[in-house]
Amino acid sequence: MDPIARARPLTSRRRVAFVDSGLGLLGYADALHTLRPDVGLVLSLDPDNMPYGPRTPDDVRRLILASAQAALAHEPDAIVVACNTASVHGLDALRAELEPGVAVVGTVPAIRPAAAAGGPVAVWATAATTSSAYLRGLVDAFASDVQTHAVAALGLAEAIESGDSRVVDECIAYAASQTPAGVRSLVLGCTHYGLVADRIVAALGPGVVVHDSPVAVARQTLRRIGLEPDPLGPEAGVEAVLLSGRPGNLPESWAAYPAGRRLRDATPAVDWRA
User: Under a CB-based contact definition with an 8 Å cutoff, are residues 222 and 233 in contact?
Assistant: First the structure.
């Protein structure tokens, strides 16, 4: 039996599942927990198959469906696909499979609000995303009249996943060196990057505004399940962690990031070691 489920048995509590190949879901789970701490969290990662970026669309679709299906045993009211790649390739399939019984919410880089704030805009993303038709479509749709630069933040997602602070800083420094001078807004085009947003700001300087989507996604998720934000509710925390469908614990490495530490502190009754 899942060690976290033993500590927090299933109840009538509302809960939301987050699916991603890796740690990108932490910031999204943390944002929802901040708005509604009484909503239970199910975190479904896929370490056996990460990263999703180099995989074919069919592979991504199959893998994200499997992660979502594993989370269904915990009776979530909604599933958040906390991965841009998986949202592009798997969102429609998930909605066809699960809705209307379970709401499905995807993620998308925050290009629209960044463009509305005025350019120039830079979008940091994985190498696969920066050259994708998906990103070009978003820019054409929401930022066609704003100067926009796609920057491949080479190795940054992998460094964040490993928890290697030195390599994270090296990757941030490289991406910052590739970012044109005069950029006013930076869009984080990978869900991992928000975990080190403070270090990205420090590298780029105070004149650049960072745009990310966890709070917007959290608010949309609450709307989909008929809840209003209530940050003063009782703590529920993480009720289950799934690792490629297998029950697991909260990995200690997550505490390297503020979002991970907050989720750890909100879940005091469970083992944080893995």
Answer: no
